[in-house]
User: What shape does this take?
Amino acid sequence: MKVLITGATGLIGSEIVKQCHKKNIDVNYLTTSKDKIENKDNFKGFYWNPSQSKIDVNCLKNVDVIIHLVGASISKRWTKEHKQAIINSRLETTALLHETLKNNHNTITQIISASAIGYYPDSLTKYYTEDEKEVSNSFLGKVVQEWEQVVDSFKTLNIIVSKVRIGVVLSNKGGAFPELAKPIKYGVGAAMGTGKQWMSWIHLHDLAGIFLYVLENELEGVYNGVAPNPVTNKMLTKAIAKKMKMPLFLPNIPKFVMKIILGEMHIILFESQRVSSKKIEKFNYKFEYFNLDSALNDLV
Assistant: This one.
């Protein structure tokens, strides 16, 4: 089997590549940097420039499945320009892939696209499943809704469409965990706001595992990429501090302070989404990091 991955050199993409190679799945990948093009038997790079609608169509040769991860980081200050980059990077790349498949011979049977739990509205009480119809009215909600709609266009090419709505990714190689752990390490850790907001987390290993599971079992539709036991911001902060054997003595950080520091993107820290993993579990995916304690044991 061979997959084509966009965003293969990022945090999630690198772990998916690693797990693909363990299962003897060959990887083609698209990159905007010619310096990052490699040419190994099981790992081949191809150039593309989505803003100019350029793509090396050789990337499709003998490929069965596309794993689509690429998109500008949401963890960079949301200036007007960067907000546009967040949207464009997702929509332009998806549209270019669609046009390329439509106009060139290929053997693609499935596309598995990243999405995000930012789709779900902010709530302290709801427990969200993939069937939720209400979409968050935040900027992230708008981005995810538009991105998923463009991904759905692959259905017109008779391709199985799958989407993984990613939660808070825990890894010591990047993502949320180093940022959460850093202030705790220096003795200035504290919960955000009330600390009651839900954080639906997932260990990087399991997130990549879900992508591979959706691929190997040809699962169609939306799947939440979250672990079975979400925690509140306060619980997560306390658990990290306990593992690091560091005290938490500072008061919670008020929302208005983080709004001053981070601007609009402060909502990432304060929005609450308690999200269910039951659907992927129903299809017999077995989590390696089922609860927070096991995940933190691996990371700390």
Q: What stands out?
A: DSSP finds ten helices and twelve strands in the chain. Residues 80-103 form the longest helix (24 residues). The chain has a mean pLDDT of 95. The longest strand covers residues 43-49.
